Amino acid sequence: MLAVQPSHYGYFGPVGTFTHQALLTLPPLRDEPTPYPTVGLALQAVRDGDVAAALVPIENSVEGGVTATLDNLTYGEPLRIVGEVVLPVQFTLFARNGTLLHDVHRVLTHPHAAAQCRDWLAANLPDAIITEGGSTAAAAAEVADPRSRFDAAICADIAGELNKLTPLATRIADNPDAVTRFVLVSRAGAVGPSTGADKTTMVLFMRDNHPGALLEILEQFASRGVNLCRIESRPTKRSLGDYCFSVDAEGHIDDARLAEAMMGLHRVCKDVIFLGSYPRADLTEPIIPHGTSNDDYAAAATWLQRLRG
Amino acid sequence: MLAVQPSHYGYFGPVGTFTHQALLTLPPLRDEPTPYPTVGLALQAVRDGDVAAALVPIENSVEGGVTATLDNLTYGEPLRIVGEVVLPVQFTLFARNGTLLHDVHRVLTHPHAAAQCRDWLAANLPDAIITEGGSTAAAAAEVADPRSRFDAAICADIAGELNKLTPLATRIADNPDAVTRFVLVSRAGAVGPSTGADKTTMVLFMRDNHPGALLEILEQFASRGVNLCRIESRPTKRSLGDYCFSVDAEGHIDDARLAEAMMGLHRVCKDVIFLGSYPRADLTEPIIPHGTSNDDYAAAATWLQRLRG
Amino acid sequence: MLAVQPSHYGYFGPVGTFTHQALLTLPPLRDEPTPYPTVGLALQAVRDGDVAAALVPIENSVEGGVTATLDNLTYGEPLRIVGEVVLPVQFTLFARNGTLLHDVHRVLTHPHAAAQCRDWLAANLPDAIITEGGSTAAAAAEVADPRSRFDAAICADIAGELNKLTPLATRIADNPDAVTRFVLVSRAGAVGPSTGADKTTMVLFMRDNHPGALLEILEQFASRGVNLCRIESRPTKRSLGDYCFSVDAEGHIDDARLAEAMMGLHRVCKDVIFLGSYPRADLTEPIIPHGTSNDDYAAAATWLQRLRG
Amino acid sequence: MLAVQPSHYGYFGPVGTFTHQALLTLPPLRDEPTPYPTVGLALQAVRDGDVAAALVPIENSVEGGVTATLDNLTYGEPLRIVGEVVLPVQFTLFARNGTLLHDVHRVLTHPHAAAQCRDWLAANLPDAIITEGGSTAAAAAEVADPRSRFDAAICADIAGELNKLTPLATRIADNPDAVTRFVLVSRAGAVGPSTGADKTTMVLFMRDNHPGALLEILEQFASRGVNLCRIESRPTKRSLGDYCFSVDAEGHIDDARLAEAMMGLHRVCKDVIFLGSYPRADLTEPIIPHGTSNDDYAAAATWLQRLRG
């Protein structure tokens, strides 16, 4: 253990990214958060005890799973997800103070951002030249320089604000519903208490890749009344066609139905990696099917004990 | 409780029936067994404490389930199956000492026995007159009377022997593989220890009769690796199409996989009536699917406990 | 084929039984129906072409399946169920004209009827002597004789009416909801048209008795959205623990979802015995799950054909 | 339709990539293949009729699915997969003629290649400076220039050969089993004939995202005896937690079991996108479970037809 517990977060940076913005929704720690240039380095900082926890993206409603995060959590030294943040992917057009929309002739941004705002740009800045650079955060910093040849940047709000830029147009992404989900990851340790609206993340390796193996796994959940919110196959890196499954299940490891499902998976799978039980960002309480509440499980255990005499 | 524990068995009589013969395969109690004229009366004698236990037929490989037994165990005051006997249904042609096969012109037996020996009779006693009476045991008693107008009886060996008759032809049933299964029933109490080759009997009432309800029940067994040896639907006596299911599962209530299946059924069913865990007559040990041994269950529980921290 | 088509029904008699009463609910044929003393003889009369069709009981809401009928249809020469009748099991106390209820001291009936009216008799005729004879129909005939020493008979309405007796008390069965289901059986031939509220009866023999075999069978129905109204295991008469399943499924063999399920069963079962598609007595139309209507099946076939190019 | 059918392939370039190398395993067309800078542009060239077909990567045994390919095939104008190539990801260290391994001080390659050869470089060129550039193909071209300050490139064999470089060390990837799977994509049209060792790719959109929806889909395959080789969830881009599933199933759309499964999916899914049936690269014939061969399906159809009369 560390002599001194670190008192700051790490995150997948740089400063001014969406991950940074997502981090601001968390209860702040004493010290300033530290950005890391890759997901791997942010998670390694947790393992090394350099930060109390790190925030990294895990899933995007348009792009899908973030494989760097999924694979690092699966194959790296054990860590624990302790929370999640879901953030709308909202792009804003920022400029230096005094610039008006019709003054914008040259826009700097990242290729992803350019792609996701294509329709808005075509409709509102049809004649502007769009230049794609290395990050939206860097674009904002460049535009903040009065000597810049760029008039505006497309970036996250935080990048504009950090660079004291003025928003010219907000919510300009073509898909207004796009969101990214981030997870807060700490060292493996005790699991936080159940809140009644929790999610549990795990990775399942099948004993063999026989037909019906995935069906068998899903039935372990279904027969206990546990719903899944996410399932994603990932290669095991052994051979083509050999997959493991990253899964988010509704409920907390302290819920009897999820506990029994997990023990069932432990028995039928080659390996089950528990990545944490944590409060859901959307605070949605699970629908608990008839007969699967903690009370139902306790009553069944009492009944069995009585039968055994 | 009784001041004095009864020291004899009851059985579905009369003396000389197959149930009586099956009873002789059990370890004897101090006193002579008592025959009862119906299954219901034999089981009531157990409830009333008149006998230590009663042996009654529950299933025949040709006729199917014995509904009097199934329904009494389901709807009557709780009892407990503590053992089973499987007996080949072997009929023998018995006559008075001195009678030879070609002397047999008149045969007395019960209609079921006559039906099950029809081919043998046609081949071996084509000209004999077959008379059907009330029971094979009574037929033997009648033939034992030197003044009887009948030359021979078709009955169980025990009836012939009790009446000091001589076997003229054995194993004369047309279906040589027919067997009857009997269960030994005692008052509800502590369950006997697991022997490694056990069977558990229970009755399952579904919460509602929705399509797929039976599938749901079977999945409770399958997802824990528990095999069924018998499943029989019985009407719940409420309305046509409303069934309960009498089930024999491999294993003992002390086996983790069966215990979890039973708790699962307790949660999803309207009612589960446990009728006992007891040694199998055939001493066959169950095939335990990968991941479902007691050790696997214990390892899973330990793993979960460790995760919870 | 017969030179002359028979123009009357057979039924499980004698005259005056519930089966006879059930027969009267059917559209009459030209000639009087013929009673047969056993289910087997009634069905054999169909096979022999002696009757156009026979009505036999198949299931009782209290007693369960009628094994004589189930086994004869399964193992005998193929027949076809073409209709069903569901009849409340209503007992009536009949006496000779002029007898009043308080005159009744001696009652004659069949043991089943006595058992099913026990509470009513205890409450209304506490001092009467109840004698159990061979059939309720015979009891009515006996009471009809002015010289009879019996004052009343418990029997079906039809038996009272045929014997010109007077009802003293109706609906005296302790379980007012008990019903018996009868099936009308003809020789195998073309199936009648779908009515939209049909039932299909079949018997399923599993290829081997492996664990999960029943689950596999049920999934053939479930995956096509076919609900079951009845499932009953019957011994195959080979060895203990070897069962076949008698099943009633909602729908008609001309319904695409049932046809596909049946073809699936034909592929996975050792044998499938089709016993007929016929209108339901309760006229209840099935709930057709999303995507399983005939139109849905036709659209899927068209889609596939188009894909194949 | 085009006046002139194009007589060359397109592929995800540039020249000298693994996709290019995979393309060389296909039967050549008359004209030289055309590289495209993105998967999207390569597939668009197919749609536009500029190329006869395009080869693009779809899956890597280490990195997982290629989302650009998966999403373009799912959401773009319909295309058809007509073949696949599986290629080991083998990196080679190439240098100009005359350079020996101990002369290598500066290596140029792409970041992915550097990462996948890290252990080999540490063991064999511990003191070399590794520079990461835009593509392995470009690295080979740079090293081919005698004035280059780089001594060697890590790239695919094809890039080394095209640039007339000399291999210094082959198979230097740390994971020797890594493979990439490519698909050959043409315009939608008639499906090629079954070869007995085929694969079918499709994308499944669930009607609603209810718990158990994935289980329901998998059962459509399982109940017909169809095995899956790959299943991958992808966001539908509507909301977080709304997925579609990209699936490779064993067999050909002309196989009865797969055809019935696909029709079943068409009925229960919101949408099924058929992406093609094509010969498997590994030539592995599927295990056909009992009762699911084309003959079994044909026999079941004949049986049903006969029953219907």
Describe the structure concisely for a colleague.
Chain A contains ten helices and 15 strands.
List keywords for this structure.
homotetramer, 15 strands, alpha/beta, 309 residues, D-Maltodextrin-Binding Protein, domain 2, Alpha-Beta Plaits, elongated
Can you walk me through this structure?
- The structure is a homotetramer of 309-residue chains.
- By secondary structure, chain A is an alpha/beta fold.
- Helix content of chain A is 29%, strand content 30%.
- Chain A is built from 10 helices and 15 strands.
- The model of chain A has no long low-confidence stretch (mean pLDDT 93).
- Chains in contact: A-B, A-D, B-C, C-D.
- At the A-D interface, α8 and β13 of A face α8 and β13 of D.
Write the layout of secondary structure elements.
Four copies of one chain form a homotetramer.
Chain A (H helix, E strand, L loop, with lengths): L8 E4 L5 H6 L10 E3 L2 H9 L5 E8 L3 E2 L1 H9 L3 E10 L3 E4 L10 E4 L1 H6 L1 H7 L4 E4 L3 H9 L7 E4 L1 H6 L3 E4 L9 E9 L10 E9 L6 H10 L5 E8 L7 E8 L5 H13 E11 L14 H15 L1
Helix pairs in contact in A: 8-9
